[in-house]
Amino acid sequence: MCFRVKFYPTDPAALKEEITRYLVFLQIKRDLYHGRLLCKTSDAALLAAYILQAEIGDYDPGKHPEGYSSKFQFFPKHSEKLERKIAEIHKSELSGQTPATSELNFLRKAQTLETYGVDPHPCKDVSGNAAFLAFTPFGFVVLQGNKRVHFIKWNEVTKMKFEGKTFYLYVSQKEEKKIVLTYFAPTPEACKHLWKCGIENQAFYKLEKSSQVRTREQRWLSTVSSSGEHLGAAAAQGHPRVFQRPPIAMLSPAGPLCCCLCVTEATPVPSPTGEALEGQEWRVGEDLGVENHEV
């Protein structure tokens, strides 16, 4: 069983507890490795250099021979040119940074990227085109082809529902403009999971007080969620409460950069759709895919 972050903080660098920031750092590092956090090559090199500084400290020519950064797996795949760029930044720009400072800088950079916090759900639009739907701390996004084709803020989403394999997102924008976005999931089960994730994320990020989260009987957002009584306002109410008792955890022996934590407490940690999606190909575009670029 692996520890996973389900709701990403809107500002991870502002988390009060260092252990909490570290756990979020591990999750984002995992996202980078599995190709979920996509970015330009220059940003990718900087993020990897922060990881390197946090893991091994300052560059030491006696300990770190030519090609030392290649021993670390930061991305699904990358070029030797990118490895050299990572080492260059590590040597020349990050000397003296403590692990905690490097992790903090990593978080600050990661949160500025378009795919920060994205857990992609494969779907098709009404024309049959492949797309990925995702929920972020800032709203609902649709990734298609080489770009992000839709970004809907949480306060513009009025309702979400599903019927069989069909997912509907109701949007109300300025000047009372109303839109209904329709997408088709691979299976009814996948569609229900997509809807459930949407309901939970909107409750977590949109509401200002936890008392605003209605019970299932009140049919919040005109739908019934199988976990309708969710945290809701945890993101807005000073997040320490969410991570009040961090799990006792240990790094997986898979390697120095493995960011999957093995939970040793009895309480199970729910996992998002990561395992089912990690093997699927999804890229937001040539400007974002690390493996498509060289420095």
UniProtKB/TrEMBL annotation:
Residues 272-295 are annotated as: Disordered. Residues 1-209 form the FERM domain. GO terms for biological process: actomyosin structure organization. Pfam families: FERM_C (PF09380), FERM_M (PF00373). GO terms for cellular component: cytoskeleton. CDD domains: FERM_B-lobe, FERM_C_FRMD3_FRMD5. SUPFAM superfamilies: PH domain-like (SSF50729), Second domain of FERM (SSF47031). PROSITE patterns: FERM_3. Residues 280-295 have a biased composition (Basic and acidic residues). PANTHER family: 4.1 G PROTEIN, FERM DOMAIN-CONTAINING PROTEIN 5. This is FERM domain containing 5. It comes from Cyanistes caeruleus. The gene is FRMD5.
